[in-house]
Amino acid sequence: MGGTSRFLRVNPRATKLRQHAYRDQCPLIDRDGVVFAVLAGSPNDNGWAAAMAEICVALDSARSELLGPDGREAEHRRGFFPTIACGISYGGGQKVWCTFAQLIGNKSIADALLANHSIQRVAGFGSAAFRLFAPKLHAYYSDTLDALEARHPRLKRNFKKSVFARITFNLGPKTVTYVHIDQNNLPAGLCAITALGNFDPELGGHLILWDAGLVIEFPPGATILIPSALLRHSNAAIRPGETRYSLTQYSAGGLFRWVECGFKTKKAFDAEGGTFKLSGSERWAKGLSLYSKWADLLDPPRA
User: Fold this and answer.
1) Among residues 89, 230, 245, 261, which is most buried (max CB within 10 A)?
2) 201 vs 19: CA distance, rounded Å
3) 242 with 173: CB under 8 angstroms?
C-alpha cells in the first residue's frame, strides 16, 4: 500500500483512549502488528511532577521575554501561541543546513531553555522511549546525526541524550494546536511530544489522531510518539483558567537527504550524475521497514 494508508488500518470509528496509569507505556499497533505510535507515559520518578512545574515556569519566562511588554501573540498554521524552534535544520527552501533559533534575537532565550536540566530530562526520556519501541528507526536518526556532526564539526546538537535534531518549545499559555501535519519532518519518522501545564486531561488537551480515529488523553508530564508527517493531529481545547504547553522533538527529512546525497543538495547530487541505490518506492518501503513489529519487541529475533 502507498501513501499514509500503511498506518491507517485501525478502527476508523473515533475511539477514546484513557490512560488511568499515566506512567504506563502503551504502543498503538496496526492490523499488521506494526507499532505506529507510542503512548510513552512518564518516568517512574517521584520528582517528575516538580521538574515539569519547573519547565512551565521557564516557558512562561521565555514567552514574556519573547513577546515583550505588549504581549501580542501571532497566529500560525499550528495554532495561536508563541513558539521557539531550535536545532539543526535543512529543507523547506533552505539552501544549506543550519543551526538556529527560529527568529533573530531568540538565541539567548533558546540557549536558556536548552540548558534547563528538567528540559534535558524530558528530551532524554523521549529519545529513550523512541529507542525502546522503534530501535531500528532510532538507529537511523542516531547514525544520521552522528554523520552530520562528523562532517560538519560546527554543528551542535540540542541534547547529548537525544537523537532528534530539533525541538520546538510551544510557549502557551494555551497550546492547543489546529489540525495539521508536519510535512517537513522525515516522512516515515516519529516525533516526540511532551505535554505540560495545569489542566484536567480527562476534560481537555487530548491528542486527536484524525486519520486513525483516536482521541487520546494526554496528561501533563506525559510523552507520546507519533508519525507527525503522516497523520493529521490536533489537540482538544482546555477550559478557561487552565494552562497548557508542549515540547516537540523531531528531525527534518531534508537532513537525511543531505547525508544520503553525500553531504550536498539533491540538485548538486543530480548534477554530478549521482544515483540512489534504491528507487523512490523502495526507499519508502525501507523507511516503513524500520518500524517495529510488536511481536519482535516481545520476542526479538535471535542473530
Assistant:
1) 245
2) 9
3) no
E strands, 160-202, are 166-170, 191-198
Mention every residue, 6+ apart, whose C-beta is less than 8 A from residue 197: 56, 172, 173, 175, 205, 220, 238, 242, 243, 244, 245
For the chain, report the end-to-end CA distance as a whole number of angstroms. 29
pLDDT for 17? 62
* Cβ-based neighbour number of residue 23 at 10 Å: 14
* Residue matched to cell numbers 517495529: 292
Strands 166-170 and 83-89: antiparallel
pTM for this one?
0.89
The answer, yes or no, to whether the previous bond of 173 is cis (omega within 30 of 0) is yes
Q: How many beta carbons lie within 10 A of that of residue 135, not counting itself?
A: 15
Q: In this structure, which amino acid lies at residue 139?
A: A
Reported as a single tens digit per residue, the pLDDT across 48-67 is 999 999 999 999 999 998 87
C-alpha span between 139 and 265 (Å, rounded): 23
DSSP string, 12-57: -S-EEE--SSTTS-EEEE-TTSBEEEEEEE--S-TTHHHHHHHHHH
- Residue 212, classified by CB atoms within 10 Å of its CB into exposed (0-12), middle (13-18) or buried (19+), is buried
Query: What pLDDT is recorded for position 69?
Result: 52
By CB atoms closer than 10 A (0-12, 13-18, 19+), residue 20 is exposed
Beta strands of the chain (E only): which ranges?
15-17, 26-29, 35-41, 75-76, 79-80, 83-89, 98-101, 166-170, 191-198, 207-209, 214-216, 223-226, 233-235, 243-250
Is the pLDDT score of 22 beyond 70? no
Contact 192, 164 (CB under 8 A): yes
